[in-house]
Design goal:
The protein is of the alpha+beta class. The chain is extended and about 110 Å long. The protein has a 6-stranded mixed sheet with strand order 7-6-5-4-3-8. Mean pLDDT is about 90; it is low at about 335-340. Helix 4 (about 130-140) packs parallel to helix 5 (about 145-165), helix 15 (about 445-455) crosses helix 16 (about 460-470) and helix 19 packs across helix 21.
């Protein structure tokens, strides 16, 4: 389409009927109902946009009018949209601006009343005759005018982008063509294993028989104890872990999970990680029968032969064409961020077949995932870590599933020494302790606590190990083990927790005890009134630290005063208006910082003692006791001269500092010459 020829087409103005509709449309007063914030009042009109259409020289011209402009008496359109089926193109002319645009009809900026958030816009007005013209030209049946135009514009954009990005699309299709079909049991596995932790016992609130319906096995069971909403328990019939849900409180259950599957690409070029957003629903009206609400594949990662993601795909609209397909990562807005999270519950039934002929062929990956059912992971990270540390195989085969999972996930790597051949030596424990670890399915945190206990020659029961690993952790547990008394510490800390005390406060108490060099007798280690004793020791420590700090400052003040005679020889200076004051102690620095609102009371005291700079206070002779400017110098060079709140000093102070700097330079040269003559 040539723009000059388009402008010669018959002009379309607002018809008398359109103008009359605008006059009659006085609108209805509405008010938004926001949960938070102030409600907004606005006027809702029947139509905000009006269309007219004509076909000339096989080109469809659609004029777009706004109610706001027509109400002001204008009959000219805001936009003229030209569409050509022959040339498969479209153009838009902004009439008032005199500019051409290429945007689609839904992206144009219309001169209409802005509706508040949540208010729905009305469809544009178009006569039945013009609507018929548009649909006949487009071949779209009886669609709304805007929808018919937008459909055509989407197809134009699709064709343009297909030609422009042909190589990208062909590359995407090349990967999609070698993605295999999903396993036949994939949906069933999702229900059985993917949502294994989303099982419920539904009970009727107030039922004296404590009857509950298990959503997994479908049986009605009788509970021994009074059920509580959201309490975790075990179904007496199928023995599956479930959560209690009260009928009165829960009429609708909905669970969402991200499910993933890794498959071999059919051309042997690597793997594909496919991620699905899955949703299950249960409604009270259906007897909480499970409904598979949907499973949507949203993301795909192409992986190389070592499970490294090399290409990322998302299902979405391709480059604003209106076409939904597999694309490279989409722009999600906000700092150009896009979503590439691999976290999912991984399908496990193909993993044994997947690892055959690879470096993982002897690592029972599927066993590790099966012993952590329904657990989220970053599967490609875990597979790569198992490639780097194939010794994880021994942990899995030994039944150390929690430790193997954490090491594969990249956590707790330092707790195992893979240079050792025997498993218990690699775990840094005895052979008997290794079997103990297998029995309790120990994790990296618990193993590290056990290793620290060995360093202090302390033996731990299963209950103690779980407690110290959970409540204290490997970073602080040595503070306890150094004293022995393992069982007493366990009972004492459990008592503190029951009294809503924090174990971290007790560790602080032990540190205060060591600092004050109090002998660790049992009465001291396990005080009857912990809070009162803790506060008393904390206060004693503060007093001791304060006394030591004062002693240190006194020693430093003495050193500063020894430096003053030499400093005064260089830096003592005054004129008719100002004079310089040298600080004599740490308190002088603190006072200057408080009164002048600056940081001189911080590190500048130590800098002056080390000879890195000299700090002085500029005073007015008429106000000798009032802070004015804080000065820092290195020799004759002025590093800083700041008035209150680090502001610039007045011009007269700057002039004084200039003369002062020259005088200091002269004195330093004189001192150097004197030293050279003496030498």
């Amino acid at each position: 389409m040539k723009k000059k020829e388009l402008r010669r087409m018959k002009p379309l103005y607002a018809t008398p009927r359109m103008m009359e509709l605008v006059r009659q449309d006085v609108g209805v007063q509405r008010e938004t109902q926001y949960m938070y914030g102030n409600n907004v009042k606005y006027t809702e009109y029947e139509y905000n946009l009006y269309y007219r259409a004509t076909v000339e020289n096989n080109v469809l011209k659609v004029a777009v009018f706004t109610r706001k402009q027509m109400a002001a008496g204008e009959q000219m359109p805001q936009y003229e949209i030209y569409l050509s089926k022959e040339e498969n193109t479209h153009l838009t002319y902004a009439v008032r601006e005199g500019k051409w645009r290429t945007g689609k009809i839904n992206t144009l900026d219309y001169d209409t009343i802005r509706l508040p958030y949540g208010a729905s816009a009305k469809k544009p007005w178009v006569s039945e005759t013009d609507k018929k013209k548009i649909n006949e030209y487009m071949g779209t049946g009886n669609k709304e005018a805007k929808e018919a135009i937008l459909t055509f514009q989407h197809e134009v954009a699709k064709d343009r982008l297909t030609k422009k990005y042909r190589s990208e699309l062909e590359g995407i299709e090349a990967v999609m063509d070698v993605v295999p079909e999903l396993p036949k049991d994939f949906d069933k596995w999702i229900l059985d294993q993917g949502f294994i932790n989303e099982r419920y016992l539904i009970y009727r609130y107030g039922d004296k028989n404590n009857a509950a319906l298990c959503t997994h096995c479908g049986k009605t069971v009788h509970l021994k104890e009074q059920p509580k909403h959201n309490q975790t328990t075990v179904c007496p019939a199928c023995k599956s872990q479930a959560r209690m849900k009260a009928w009165k409180k829960q009429k609708y259950l909905s669970d969402k999970k991200k499910i993933g599957i890794i498959q071999n690409l059919t051309d042997g070029s690597g793997y594909i990680l496919r991620l699905f957003d899955c949703k299950l629903e249960r409604k009270q009206e259906n007897g909480y029968r499970l409904d598979f609400a949907g499973c949507w594949e949203q993301r795909r990662f192409k992986l190389d032969n070592r499970f490294v993601p090399i290409e990322y795909f998302e299902w979405g609209e391709y480059k604003s064409t209106g076409v939904m397909r597999w694309c490279h990562e989409l722009n999600h807005g906000g700092y150009n961020w896009y979503y590439q999270d691999e976290e999912c519950v991984l399908y496990t039934r193909n993993l044994k077949r997947l690892r055959k002929g690879t470096e993982l062929q002897y690592v029972p990956v599927e066993v590790l995932f099966r012993h952590n059912p329904g657990r989220y992971s970053n599967p490609t990270d875990m597979l790569r870590n198992m490639l780097r540390h194939p010794q994880i195989e021994y942990l899995i085969k030994a039944g150390l599933y929690q430790l193997a999972w954490e090491l594969a996930a990249g956590r707790g790597r330092d707790v195992v020494d893979w240079s050792k051949k025997k498993l218990w030596e690699a775990m840094k424990v005895t052979k008997e302790q290794m079997f103990f670890c297998i029995k309790i399915n120990i994790g990296a945190r618990g193993l590290e606590v056990l290793q620290i206990a060995n360093e202090y020659r302390v033996s731990l029961t299963e209950r103690q190990l779980r407690f110290f690993g959970t409540e204290i952790g490997p970073g602080l547990v040595g503070n306890l083990f150094q004293y022995g008394h393992t069982e007493k510490f366990h009972r004492y800390l459990e008592g503190l927790i029951q009294n809503k005390e924090k174990c971290g406060d007790y560790i602080d108490y032990l540190e205060d005890m060591e600092y004050l060099q109090i002998p660790p007798t049992e009465d001291v280690l396990f005080p009857r009134d912990f809070q009162q004793t803790h506060q008393r020791l904390a206060l004693q420590r503060m007093e001791k630290e304060d006394a030591i700090r004062k002693m240190e400052i006194a020693e430093k003040d003495k050193l500063l005063q020894e430096m003053l005679p030499e400093l005064k020889e260089i830096y003592r200076f005054e004129d008719e208006q100002f004079y310089m004051v040298l600080p004599t102690c740490k308190e002088d620095f603190n006072r200057e910082g408080r009164e002048n609102h600056n940081c001189v009371g911080g590190s500048y005291y130590d800098k002056m003692l080390k000879g890195q700079s000299c700090v002085m206070f500029l005073r007015k002779k008429e106000e000798p006791d009032k802070a004015f400017c804080t000065v820092e110098m290195n020799g004759e060079r002025i590093l800083q001269c700041r008035a209150v709140r680090n502001s610039e000093p007045p011009e007269e102070a700057k002039a004084f500092m200039g003369e002062f700097s020259k005088e200091v330079a002269r004195r330093i040269r004189k001192q150097k010459n004197r030293l050279q003559i003496t030498a």
